[in-house]
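quick one, two chains, predict together pls
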Amino acid sequence: MAELEIRGVTVKHGGITAVKDASIYAERGEIIGLIGADGAGKSSLMHAAAGVIRFDGEVSFGGTSFGSPREAERLKPKIGLMPQGIGLVLYKNLTVSEHLSFFSKIRGLKEDAALNDYKHRLLKMAGLERFTERPAGKLSGGMMQKLSLICTLIHRPSLLILDEPTTGVDPLSRLELWKILEEIRESEGTVTLMSTAYMQEAEKMDRVYLFDSGTIIASGTAEELNETVKGYVYEPVACRSDRCIAAGHYTYSLDPLKTPHKEPTLEALFFINALKRGVEIPEIVVSERESEEPIPQVVMEAKGLTKRFGDFVADDHIDMDLKSGEILGLLGANGAGKTTFIKMLLGLYPIDDGELVLLGKPIRSAEDRLGLKARIGYVSQHFSLYKDMTVRENLLYFASMHGIDAKKASSRIDRYAKELGFTSYMDSLPTELPLGINQRFSVAAALLHEPVVLFLDEPTSGVDAIARSQFWQMLKLLKRKWGIAILITTHYMSEAEYCDRVVLLKEGRKVADDSVENLYKKHPAAKSFEEIFLHYYEDGR
Amino acid sequence: MIGTFFALVAKELIGFFRSWGLVAIVLYSFTLDIYITGAGIEMQAKNIAVGYVDETGGGMSGKILSRLHMPEFQKPVMFTSREALSRSIYNREIMVGLIFESDFEKKLKRYGRTSIEMLLDSIAATQSFQALQYLQNILLDYADIGIPVELKIHKLFNPNATTSQFMAMAEMLSVITLLGVILTAVVFVREKENGTWDIMLLMPIDPKLIILAKSFSQVLVIMGGVVIATGIVLFGVFDVPLNGSIAAFFLLSFFYAFTSAGIGLFVAAVSKSMLQVAQLSILIMMPLIFLSGAWTPIHAMHPLLQKLSLISPLRYYIEGSESIFFRGTDFADLWSYFGGVIVLGSVLYFYGFRKIGRLF
């Protein structure tokens, strides 16, 4: 019997089944990965395994099994759970060393030399020994996650459950987090169950489980899994049928194609699974814009834009320009200053220093922006639309805000719904939509007035692989058919591939600004964008 | 412009009617809450427990005791000793205790005057002192004091002198104040909480129009509540008289709803979450309601508080409504109440408008 065995676990939240009949096992010292989109059931399963929510089925660890949170109580001293969200378990006014002593006290650990040694070891692993007196609120996102991890490790749990510990963390800190995990499993034989949004991390795991809408669709090592879909993955080629789909740099087909095969990534599994199950994937179409308003060559020019919050500099003298017909990716970890920058461009935050020219107009006061609002489209983080109005009502509302007459508005809305594939959701509330639909509908709302520039703040976070590829397809079509400029922020370094040009922010400063080809030319040894950006992070240290 | 205004108002009304929690709170406040206040807050002496110790052996004392009956008094309970009676009062079983000493009747016969000892639980001060007054009236009937004056009393405006009608009306006006503030603040703070605030700011629309439309939508909700509460609770349940013009009352309410919306705008400007809205609203509302005369007659307040009550818009609203319902004051003579509500309302609304306008 394996050290950890999860057998037939089903989790329901209200009437909704979050996880259906999931089974997972892990041997001593293994790192097991859970992969899938937001809402696929990873967190629910991990919470069940940690014994903090009710579930059907059985979990056994080290020979002790439980079927309810109450029965799990006696295993709790052996379990360490780190919930999702950066710095969620931390108290921002407590220092690093106060955190360690707080967590050892609530775990009831004996304050002896051994604990002291262990604390020092943890601090050293996390690279935090120089910052023991710094309050958690003043640490960077990466340091916060490392601190959260060592706080979770303080009682030497033999089962470690980590919910997306690396999401939104910079690539270097991510490597360091992994180093801690590797060291702990070597020395303590800890079983680690972790979810991740980064496919690359799956390669370092002993086994991964792929989640799709509550069920595990595949499991094995990354290599084994890739092997199973190898025959279906091809170089990009146009194709469109129920058994074939072109997505980004790949084409997936159940029937043999004449095009050469391509080395698959784990994302391929989601596509092949969808094709095999006959899931309908709407084709994204974008038609020409109705407006004949010319689009200026240079849409945005920023010189030395700076934003300070107290003595914290969120954006430090950033220069950037944006041209029409260009997709510019603004990349960086959480807290690097991406959202702040977009908010300065939009006038949601006052600019502390620097010059900004938007659509040919120098911006010095709020009045300068008045006429520009009608020409800018913006999708905010988490697709914030009105939760108590249906999709159609939301879109009609936005259209009337932009003074589009009712007849024109409703025909345009119907067209967008058809082209972007959300017609069947028109009378649903935004909270009832799958994340991918919500994402495209939010963009539709921002496009109703046919803007000449589109600002998108983290639109791909947590969205499943298929919806993500459709999203990028949509942006590419918008760029081609409309010729507008698109500025998009993301913390997935790998998405840089889809952009024409990328700007990398690190702790409020711009560290790279170049076209995608040039970046590859400058770093011929790098296999992926992840590695290219790692260079910039390491250089800055 | 007008189209945009109504689109904004419609959006807020849809939002309101789809959040059933909010609808439930508003409906509750405008019906049950007013009913409970009107029916439940009883200032009159009723059903009072009386105990007595009679050392005289009956006669005069029996006659007096027989006058204590329902609905004001329960049947008096006999105690054998003064200690037992005291203990009972201490234990809250008895509210009024009467002690007839053994020489009570003897004194009366010999000197023409005598005394009864009385113990009062004056924690419920109003009730126990009203009981005292009743007792004094009963005793007066027996004591022929020989003053040739009889009081002829006319109870004006509220002939049965019931407090429930006034309490229900005052509670309705307090509800309008509180909900006016909270609902208005909520329509703004909900956008902050849901992250739609930024989207709203980026609409190519004059912020003034947004603020105006948003607060107007909630004034409409409040007015709906006023109609329900006046029709069902005030007229239907409590039979509040209507001696003046109902139109005047609704007009006054409309202006007042904007006044409390103005406070709501201020609350919305300084709060980031619904929790803060709730906390701040209560904090601001309490003095406003205390100073309005809803709970304490203004002439009974400390002189300083009396002056302060002049700046509570609720004071004018309550006095105005009272005049319309009970006194039947002519529309032309209501100008001072309208004036008070409109002047204070404009100041508050303008201030709130400016305050939230700065966030746009």
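Chain A has three domains: 4-220, 227-277, 298-369+382-540.
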